Amino acid sequence: MAAPSLPVHFHVHMISDSTGETLMAVMRASVVQFEHARPIEHLYALVRSPRTLERALDHVAAYPGIVMFTMVNNELREALEDRCAQLGMPAIAILDPIQATLSGYLGAPMLGRTGAQRQLNADYYRRIEAMDYSMNHDDGQGEHLAKAEVILMGVSRTSKTPTCVYLGHRGIRAANVPIVKDAPLPPILFELKKPLIVGLTASPERIIQIRRNRLLNLQEERSTDYIEEDAVRDEIIYAKRLYARHGWPTIDVTRRSIEETAAKVINLLTEHKANLS
Predict the structure, then answer these.
(1) pLDDT, tens digit, 9 for 90 and up, residues 208-236
(2) 99 and 190, same domain (yes or no)
(3) Residue 65 domain boundaries
(4) What is the CATH number of the domain that holds 238?
(5) Structural domain count of the chain
(6) Is residue 230 exposed (0-12), middle (13-18) or buried (19+ Cβ within 10 Å)?
(7) Residue 2 lies in a domain
(8) Tens-place pLDDT, residues 70-113
C-alpha cells in the first residue's frame, strides 16, 4: 500500500512513574522515522498510585491511540495492561527489552526502584553545576573561561547558546563567545590550553534567514547590515580565518540540529582530552 500523502494525526499516551523524559525521547525518536506521522502527545508523569493511574487511563479511553509506558510497580502495570487490553489499544513497555537483556547478561535481577535513574548522585550535581556555568558564561559573559571544558565561538545566530545549554545538561561546562568583526576578543582566549575551543559556522543564507526572523519577532523593520548578504558573508569569512589562524576545529551547523552539533562537540572533546593526557 502506498504511503499516505497527507499528515496522519494520532494520539500517543505516555504514562510514567517518573518524569516521563525517557518516554518522550523514545517516542519522538521513533515517530520521526515516519514522514507523515503527526503525534498528538499526552504525557502523564509521576503515576505512582491507583488513583493517578485511573485518571490517566480515563483520559486514554477518551482519546484512543497508542500507549507507551514505564512502570516498575507490578500491580499498577497489570492494571494498565488490563485496561488497555479492554480498550483494544496497544500498550508498549519501552524499557522491557533493554532491562531483560541487561538482567540476562549481568545475571542479576532488577531493583524495581521507581525513578532510580533520577537519584541525587554526584553525576546529577555535576550536571546542575555545568548548566549553571553555561548560563553564566553565555554570549561572552562570565570571568572564568579557564574553568570551561568547551568554548564555542561564532558570529551571531550560529546556535552557540542552545548548544551550550544542551552540553551543560550533559554535564559539560560550556561557554560561548560571540565573534563581532573589528571587536576585540577576550585576551585570555588565546592563552588557554585546557578548554577545547570550537568555531561554529553556517551558510550565509541560513544565518540571514534566522536573523531576519529574529528582527521580525522584535518588530524591527529598518534596513541593517545585520541581514545584508555581503556583510554577513564578510562576517563568516572573518570568523573562518580566525579559526584557521588558531587551529580551532570548525563545525558547520547549517544542516545540523542542536543535538547533532553537541554530539560532534562531545566527540571533539573526547579527542582533545585524550591528547592532553
Answers:
(1) 999 998 888 888 777 688 999 999 999 99
(2) no
(3) 8-118
(4) 3.40.50
(5) 2
(6) exposed
(7) no
(8) 988 999 999 999 999 999 999 999 888 877 787 787 887 666 55
